[in-house]
Amino acid sequence: MDYLQAFAISAAGMSVERMRVETAATNLAHANTVQDPNGSGFQPLRVVARAGAASFPSLVHERLPEAIEVQVVPASGPVRRLHEPGHPLADAEGFVRYPGVDTATEMVTLTGALRSYEANVAALTTARALALKTLEIGRSA
């Protein structure tokens, strides 16, 4: 059994979840930044992780980076418009444009990423324990 492969799989999963946490944190940090009247400004981001084009037999014998493709892409969604007529960046109608960041969705993303990260840590810990037990067999013989 190749324990290094199990370690690599867990590490790849942890890396994806870390990217999700960082992206959600970035979105939350920019949730209340103002966009210019012409619409330029922060655009929310999403992490897209998908299985690579590799076949299952090749996944068993190759390293994991070819197995998972991860991208951070702009998220589509409506811009929030708040009526703040005294704001220096308000448009002619008195509306200020903010990025379309949904804080509830971002918090759910953070929680889900944390739980998935913990599951990958548990898998890594289990693989490590199995490897150590296997080494004990060699010592007792």
UniProtKB/TrEMBL annotation:
Checking Pfam families in the record gives: Flg_bbr_C
Membrane-spanning segments: none
Localization: Bacterial flagellum basal body
Q: Name one GO biological process term.
A: bacterial-type flagellum-dependent cell motility
> Sorted alphabetically, which keywords does the UniProt record give?
Bacterial flagellum, Cell projection, Cilium, Flagellum
Gene Ontology CC entries for this record: bacterial-type flagellum basal body, rod
**Where do the Flagellar basal-body/hook protein C-terminal domain residues begin and end?**
93-135
* Coarse class of the protein's main subcellular location: other
Q: Which InterPro entries match?
A: Flg_bb/hook_C_dom (IPR010930), FlgC (IPR006299)
Q: Could you describe the subunit structure of this protein?
A: The basal body constitutes a major portion of the flagellar organelle and consists of four rings (L,P,S, and M) mounted on a central rod. The rod consists of about 26 subunits of FlgG in the distal portion, and FlgB, FlgC and FlgF are thought to build up the proximal portion of the rod with about 6 subunits each.
Q: NCBIfam families, per this entry?
A: FlgC (TIGR01395)
Q: Which family does it belong to?
A: Belongs to the flagella basal body rod proteins family.
What protein is this chain from? Flagellar basal-body rod protein FlgC
Taxonomic lineage per UniProt? Answer: Bacteria, Pseudomonadati, Pseudomonadota, Betaproteobacteria, Burkholderiales
